Amino acid sequence: MASISLRHIFKEYPHTAKERKKEEEKNISPFAVRDFNLEIKDGEFVVLVGPSGCGKSTTLRMIAGLEDISGGELYIDDVLSNNVDASKRNIAMVFQNYALYPHMTSYGNMAYGLKLRKVSKTLRVVDKDAIKALKQKRKETKDDEELKRIDEEIESLKNNPSKEKTVLVHYTKAEIDEKIQKAAEILDIKHLLDRKPSDMSGGQRQRVALGRALVREPKVFLLDEPLSNLDAKLRASMRSEIVKLHRTVKTTFVYVTHDQIEAMTMGEKIVVMKDGVIQQVGAPSVIYDKPLNKFVAGFIGTPQMNFFNVKLKAGAKDVHITLPNNKEISFKLDELRKIKDEYITGEEKEVILGIRGENISLNNKKGGIDAQVVFAEMLGNTTNIICKLDDSTDEFNISIQDRTELKPGDKVSVSFNATAIHLFDKENEETIYLSEGE
Ligand SMILES: Nc1ncnc2c1ncn2[C@@H]1O[C@H](COP(=O)(O)OP(=O)(O)O)[C@@H](O)[C@H]1O
Ligand SMILES: [Mg+2]
What we know:
By secondary structure, the protein is an alpha+beta fold. It is 28% helix and 31% strand.
């Protein structure tokens, strides 16, 4: 069990002068990870999520000690660990490609690391120094009673190992077997212990890879896209298996994925990353309902959140929003989430309105927003209706629970659920709402 604290962590991979010049020209940061700050509590399940290349694996590898840290401080259990050797961190890592030895059985793969490992054991040994001292004393003693007493004491020391001695020893075969059987039980792979990787499915191999991590009884589990090689159905079931495993072992897990559904379903805490920089940290529901910027809003959730370039006029009482088709929609200020003061000027500002398809209703009420249907797709439990405001604007989606008779070209009237409207600054794309506690 361990807590992990990352403070102002930077990572710069070695660059050639040519590469550096190119980056400068394009104004790209040379850092794969930049000013990364995160507190991971003991026993927590944290998910790092973001598009490919955003620095997830780099961050994980720095925690594992497989990659040097260019700047900042990494604390594991309050111990500064930047320069602690990977082998001394007691952290296990599971990779996308399983990294099992092909010529070994599952049992062999799980046993391999344990066989190499030395653990300190406290043994009780005969206290030779004390005996020596007593023998010396015996030589100097004349008194028979005293001699007898010394002899008894020496005898007792010889028969009762009383001195504690710490030694480094390998696990015994029986100890290794016990650990493997226990892990195999948890992961339901007892029947696979004699098989080699080539005789197992991807899901089974990944279970064995998890088993190999589990037998080490690490303080921290790091998982780097462990389910990416599996098909969709297996991924879904392995997701819940890994969450269950976390509940069983109650150890700190840091899980990396580019798949926002994995992040949403597995994480207690999600860290959304982009270009080496943390965008937002929070519980899945907070990330989904209160994204801090347009990137997070668009990255989390399928279908993607709809965005419109709008003009906002927020006054002390009312908020007017002009949509791209020039339709104005109005709200009472308190119908929306709390807007930062600097946006409540009564003057028109260009902002980005974001709204998820499930927060748009088709009501055909008077005063609604006119739109036309482009097409509708039935997804089974929901229906996705793709619309546009008019011919000059982008498409957006509406997600409804019912089936629909709507056909391409049909005219509809829609409305936006006020509490689910997101507003982002046009320039920096950050939310214009106050955060909790502000
Ligand atoms: N060994 C390396 N040498 C140089 N650049 C690297 C190395 N590994 C990763 N990078 C770069 O660092 C950035 C982050 O990579 P990575 O952490 O692998 O991203 P992710 O795991 O989120 O896909 C990328 O731009 C990648 O090209
Ligand atoms: Mg990666």
